[in-house]
Amino acid sequence: MPIDFTEITNQMNLGLLQNTLLFPHFTTTTTPISSQFFFKNPTFTGGKNWVLRAQNSCSKSESIQLVAESMDIKNELNKNLYEQIEPYATGFLKVSDVHTIYWEQSGNPSGHPVLFLHGGPGGGTSPGNRRFFDPQFYRIILFDQRGAGKSTPHACLEENTTWDLIKDIEKLREHLEIPEWQVFGGSWGSTLALAYSQSHPDKVTGIVLRGIFLLRKKEIDWFYEGGAAALYPDAWEPFRDLIPENERDCFVKAYHKRLNSDDLNTQYEAARAWTKWEMMTAHLIPNEETIKKGDSDEFSLAFARIENHYFTNKGFFSTDSHLLDNIDKIRHINGVIVQGRYDCCCPMMSAWDLHKAWPEADFKVVTDAGHSANEPGIAAELVAANEKLKNIIRNK
């Protein structure tokens, strides 16, 4: 006999079936359901087509069972970090008379190339950065930018600009004989990813960005001139108190003076304070392992000196809105923007501005996350973004 959808919806609206249904990742509400819902909305939630069937009986007094079956119209995107892997190749590339950069490759040597761009600037790469990518599909390339990580000379500011780094990326691509690649970057890495992609759009197959930083004055002022202090006054005070009151009109300038002092101990003291401030605000829930990075003189010196150098020089961009002004150059490239709702370091206003300028890119807001790529919700969306681009490449 035909299925009586009117009867089903009446039963559902009375709540008789409410406790017999289980819809993964689907929150039921008390909104009445029309029988037309089943015809107009065959899909309940991403990637799963729900088939509704009523089990008929001779008596209306018997409960009607509604069974939701998922049919794989398309595969669910993996959101789990991949297992830790080791590089199959490492090396150093001399990119100028001053600088030599460290690089590594992992994953599939014959896979689709993807370039990971670390944050800071000055943060360097770490083994966990490889885990965002399917090692069976991707040829994963990491490198430490000038002065950072294993690159030499350590914490060097000479010949260290955004445009120098873009030239380095091209030299590395040519050195590794890669015709084109996917680009992945978070925080400062998102800045560099945008700047590189806008300079060489023909070399980029896809873009994944996280914790958007457009290096505008209002972003620098928010984090380093007292805005974020409203949320983290306890973390702000040690950063503030290192600077005498008569120099507090511009903390970036005051720290620049100390990070470039002739006295190495003065540099270290300023570097630890600068780094600790950022590390204490990088996660929605403070992460002790991240905070401890601020205790390392070696890490802090490169991180603080190079960051401050770039911020003092406004990212070496010609205008405050340079990256937004050049979005048309990458509009045709598949992109994904991932942003933590409660990102204190790179507040969501920048991701929102980028989203409005580049609506063609997917925009994922993680509602329970801050800034760090290692927060569970952000990590999941970053993996899923790479999976999406992987499927696009496979289906070409």
Automatic annotation (TrEMBL):
Compartment(s): Cytoplasm
Pfam families the record matches: Abhydrolase_1
UniProtKB keywords: Aminopeptidase, Cytoplasm, Hydrolase, Protease
UniProt EC number: 3.4.11.5
Domain AB hydrolase-1: 113-375
Superkingdom as given in the UniProt entry: Eukaryota
Top enzyme class: hydrolase
One cellular-component annotation, GO: cytoplasm
Record GO biological process: proteolysis
Swiss-Prot/TrEMBL catalytic activity: Release of N-terminal proline from a peptide
Example of a GO MF term: aminopeptidase activity
Family of this protein: Belongs to the peptidase S33 family.
Name of the protein described by the UniProt record: Proline iminopeptidase
Name of the gene this protein is made from: PIP
